[in-house]
Amino acid sequence: MILSDTSPAASEVYFRRLAEMTPSQRVDVGAALLNAGDSLQRAAMRRRYPFADDSEITFHIAVTRFGLDLAQKAYRRS
Question: Half-sphere exposure (CA, 13 Å, Cβ side) for 48?
Fold first, then answer.
């Protein structure tokens, strides 16, 4: 696989490091990246909706991830 924004040498190091990891370590890295992305999205929503509580922020995130119709059904909002 070629990473278009990465030098060939850096790509080689990246993929070699991934190959050296155990499956558990790769899952841990993926979970950490997922958590980091979620934290960034929550921070962005808090800036956009400064007076929203946690449930409101969660709903707005669901809208961006799944669309308004599905978010309204899942969170029983109209």
Answer: 12
Q: What is the pLDDT of residues 1-27, one digit of tens each?
A: 666 788 889 889 989 999 999 999 999
What distance lies between CA 38 and its chain's CA centroid? Answer: 5
| Residue type for position 47 | R
Q: How far apart are the first and last CA of the chain?
A: 44
3-state helix/strand/coil string of 53-65: CHHHHHHHHHHHH
pTM here is 0.72
72 and 78 Cβ atoms separated by less than 8 Å: yes
Residue with tokens 């190091």: 13
Domain boundaries, the chain: 8-74
